[in-house]
Amino acid sequence: MVALVALLPQALAQTCATINPANAPTFASGYSGRVVMNGLKGPRGIVFDKQGNLLTSEQGGYGIRYIQLTDNGGTNVCVKSSKQLVADTSLNHGLELSPDGKILFASSVSAVYAWDYDGTTGTVSNKKTVVSGTNNGGHNTRTLLIPKSSPDTLLVSRGSNGNIDSPTAQESSGRSQIRAFSITKIRSAAADYLTGDILGWGLRNSVGIGEDPLGGIWSVENSVDQMSRENKDIHNTNPCEELNYHGIISNANNTLKGANFGYPQCFAVWDPTVLPNPGTFKTGQNFAIGNPSGAVTDATCSSRQAPKLCFPSHTAPLDIKFNPNGTAAYITFHGSWNRNPPDGFRLSKVAFNPSTGMPTEPSTSQTAAQNIMYNANNGACPTRCFRPVGMAWGPKGQLFMTSDSTNEIWVVGGAT
To answer: Where are the strands (E) in 176-304, listed by range?
Structure first.
């Protein structure tokens, strides 16, 4: 009888039906994955609630979707039910839940909103605008993060108004910045974006924000397109996409709070070999765009906060999630439109030292990102290939991920 009872859960567990991927990616050794759901409309942000339900924002105009899962462990996960939670065509990326799971936050190009949320019934009510004044052209996502180390803080990332947004050289522009807001205060009365505390600025378009287990805040930056240096086109392999560190937000003595990361004047080198008069430049070092002169020189740029790591140009990192023990960060690379041949379109893993909270590779490394899920051939990209965006850790420890070009949600096996 004891043996039969022990076997009962295995007997009841069912294998989820296979959903063939729109474009099957390749997995590195030790990793696997399967499509949990398809037929979505541009899925972007993704979070789990306290009840184990999955929420995703759909940039294709459907707002926010509520998905109940049958989770048999590993990659054996399938959809039990799905419904539209919020119908709002303006919502396009950002999605976050309060630590108690009772407040849902989402963003449009112009504002951040909050709802009272019930994960058991899959319902929302009492919509409020909590942050306003974020409207601009160019980059339209407003990424949201509530750090575990500072549960009353909502971080909001806002990108630039175009490729080179000259006014962002001033803090007062409010663009190309990550700002922090007290959740208690903005739930009581909406705040203008310009009133938030500046965590970092000079960040062209930091779509991905994540927190490591030590409480450190990290962002991944989509750097400039069409770059030239001393009248030479170097854009195909420069500048790098950046992994930036913003310190521990709960630390009152955080010396990185309010740091300037260089944009729109300074960028980090990826490929020094194509620079005119490259001198001693190495990967990861800041340098000036265009023709360095006057108030903006390479020396000026060396005083800006440099990235902790660099990634290949135009690969477009969109999210970063750390594993629970702090030995790795997973980063989605949405992929390029501004280089030949195309690059990105993959999920990668970066090794970290859990004691220091820093990457194991030096800032000059070009090999820090280990590709674990990728397209075998990027020739069909960006419109007809796997293109990852957001990530979330599931209740049983699996990594879930959206792909907006293929309208899928994946679960990744082997990601620990």
So the answer is: 177-182, 191-192, 197-201, 208-211, 216-221, 228-229, 232-233, 241-248, 259-260, 266-268, 286-288
The string of pLDDT tens digits covering residues 248-264 is 999 999 999 999 999 99
Tell me if 122 sits within 8 A of 85, measured CB to CB.
yes
Write the CB contacts of 142 (distance below 8 Å, at least 6 apart in sequence).
93, 94, 107, 108, 109, 112, 134, 156, 157, 158
d(Cα 115, Cα 97) in Å, to the nearest integer? 10
Tokens representing residue 193 in the block: 């974006």
- Bridge partners of 57, per DSSP, are 64
- Rounded to whole angstroms, the Cα distance separating 115 from 105 reads 7
The C-alpha atoms of residue 243 and residue 320 are separated, in whole angstroms, by 9
Q: Please determine, for residue 1, whether its predicted confidence score (pLDDT) is greater than 70.
A: no
In degrees, rounded to 5, the angle at the alpha carbon of residue 233 between the alpha carbons of residues 229 and 237 is: 95
Distance CA 114, CA 271 (A): 43
| Distances, alpha carbon 48 to alpha carbons 15, 65, 321, in Å | 22, 12, 14
Whether 227 contacts 274, CB under 8 Å: no
What does the block give as tokens for 24?
Answer: 């099957």
Band of the pLDDT at 382, cuts 50, 70, 90?
confident
C-alpha 321: how far from chain center: 8
DSSP state of 274: G
Average pLDDT, the chain: 95
Superfamily of domain 40-413: TolB, C-terminal domain (2.120.10.30)
14 CB-contact burial (10 Å; exposed 0-12 / middle 13-18 / buried 19+) = exposed
Residue of 85, 88, 91, 96 lying closest to 110 (CA atoms) = 91
Q: Where are the beta strands (DSSP E) in 323-414?
A: 328-333, 346-353, 358-359, 369-374, 388-393, 399-403, 408-413
Distance CA 281, CA 275 (A): 9
- Other CB atoms within 10 A of residue 411 CB: 25
Question: What pLDDT score was predicted for residue 13?
Answer: 61
Helix boundaries (H) for 271-348 = 298-302
What confidence tier does 12 reach under pLDDT thresholds 50, 70, 90? low
Cα separation, 75 vs 18, whole angstroms: 11
